[in-house]
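quick q for whoever's on today - can somebody do inverse folding on this one?? i tried earlier but teh output was garbage lol. tokens:
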């Protein structure tokens, strides 16, 4: 295991908090909700569970605070669960609507799977209801028991830093940069090597690149990295922390590419940018600090993983590839798309569709084998490939299927399945210190084997 102490330093800041109910916390319940409460009692039925809503009215801001408590009548004591709802703030005039919304939410849902994450505004992560009236947005989260504490910490962070509901491209770009900045801020200055920014001129534009050169660098290999973000959001800045850490762990130069993004530059422009930069570096490798015989690899997370896989088909001179929960099944035909469709897993089929709509012109683009590498007819002769895959991710099965295709074609592969984590973990070492350390260990060993 590599030394990931720099990651661990920030772990406590995002540690999943275990807030439990106590008997004393509801000893003075006052359910004065009249007809609304009666309606609620009639329609919400759980096995041996009753729902109590505590109404508190704030005179100063004319808002109502509704609290939820689980109670087991057979034991005549409070069921000690994590707090399901910390607080839902509703304008007084919206009072009559909340009970119908809660009924819709809880109907058929096991109360033991509902967990509180939000503090000021609750964030919806179970897809059962998306409630927004006035300036209030309420979201609920269903906990998968497989989630590890790092995953829970991320979801709790997202609950307190909710994704904008009216998703616009620029808003989502700012949001992606913001959450990466907040989570990884303590790790920004930990890289002891050099960081250099350059541009690569192509026939149509100039592509910015960032070169990470660690101390005591080996000059026999170089890795070109493509960030994720659905070909629409993110940048080398969002992946800087993990890329410079991985460069340090592998003692290898890593170059991060700022390819153009959709919808301003739809497919195949962003893929062509990546191809042009990679070809340029392969042909001019000594200008980037490595030996003339140095081996060149491509790597990327999510959308960047798809780019890396595609380049391995398109270009000669790529010696290895590292695919980190790569977006290989853009069409959404693998079983994991259904298994992890719930928004609690962060990346949903709906979000993938939003990305595809903004990154591609039409379905024909998506079905192009350069974009959907699973549709290629041949896989012989591809460079060795390392797969880093999130266990609880809609993209999981696309990676598993692609590995089988490569192995069948005689390509050297290794797949590392990261248990109990969701999509996005790799670029957030500030909240996934141990998982990222395990992933970078695998990358280090793979690069060393080439």
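ok took a stab at it. sequence:
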């Amino acid at each position: 295991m590599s030394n990931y102490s720099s990651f661990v330093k920030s772990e406590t800041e995002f540690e999943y908090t275990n807030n439990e109910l106590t008997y004393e916390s509801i000893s003075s319940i006052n359910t004065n909700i009249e007809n609304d409460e009666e309606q609620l009692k009639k329609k919400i039925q759980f096995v041996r569970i009753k729902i109590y809503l505590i109404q508190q009215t704030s005179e100063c801001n004319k808002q109502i605070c509704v609290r939820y408590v689980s109670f087991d009548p057979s034991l005549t004591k409070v069921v000690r669960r994590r707090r399901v709802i910390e607080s839902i703030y509703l304008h007084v005039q919206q009072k009559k609507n909340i009970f119908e919304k809660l009924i819709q939410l809880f109907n058929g849902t096991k109360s033991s799977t509902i967990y509180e994450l939000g503090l000021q505004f609750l964030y919806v992560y179970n897809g059962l209801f998306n409630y927004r009236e006035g300036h209030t947005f309420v979201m609920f989260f269903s906990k998968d028991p497989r989630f590890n504490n790092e995953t829970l910490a991320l979801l709790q962070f997202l609950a307190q830093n909710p994704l904008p509901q009216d998703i616009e491209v620029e808003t989502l770009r700012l949001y992606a940069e913001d959450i990466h900045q907040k989570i990884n801020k303590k790790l920004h200055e930990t890289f002891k090597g050099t960081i250099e920014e350059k541009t690569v001129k192509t026939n149509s534009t100039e592509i910015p690149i960032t070169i990470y050169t660690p101390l005591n660098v080996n000059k026999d290999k170089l890795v070109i990295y493509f960030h994720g973000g659905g070909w629409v959001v993110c940048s080398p800045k969002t992946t800087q922390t993990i890329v410079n850490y991985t460069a340090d762990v592998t003692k290898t130069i890593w170059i991060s590419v700022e390819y153009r993004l959709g919808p301003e530059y739809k497919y195949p422009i962003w893929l062509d940018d990546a191809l042009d930069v990679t070809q340029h570096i392969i042909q001019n490798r000594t200008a980037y600090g490595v030996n003339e015989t140095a081996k060149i690899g491509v790597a990327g997370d999510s959308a960047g993983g798809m780019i890396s896989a595609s380049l391995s088909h398109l270009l000669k001179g790529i010696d290895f590839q590292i695919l980190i929960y790569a977006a290989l099944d853009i069409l959404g035909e693998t079983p994991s798309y259904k298994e992890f469709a719930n928004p609690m897993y962060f990346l949903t089929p709906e979000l993938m569709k939003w990305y595809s709509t903004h990154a591609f012109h039409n379905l024909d683009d998506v079905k192009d084998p350069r974009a959907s590498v699973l549709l290629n007819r041949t896989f012989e002769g591809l460079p060795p490939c390392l797969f880093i895959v999130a266990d609880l991710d809609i993209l999981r099965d696309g990676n598993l299927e692609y590995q089988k295709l490569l192995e069948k074609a005689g390509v050297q592969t290794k797949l590392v399945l990261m248990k109990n984590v969701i999509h996005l973990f790799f670029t957030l070492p500030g909240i996934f210190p141990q998982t990222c350390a395990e992933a970078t260990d695998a990358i280090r060993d793979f690069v060393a084997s080439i």
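fwiw The chain has 13 helices and 16 strands. also The longest strand covers residues 63-72. so keep that in mind when u check it
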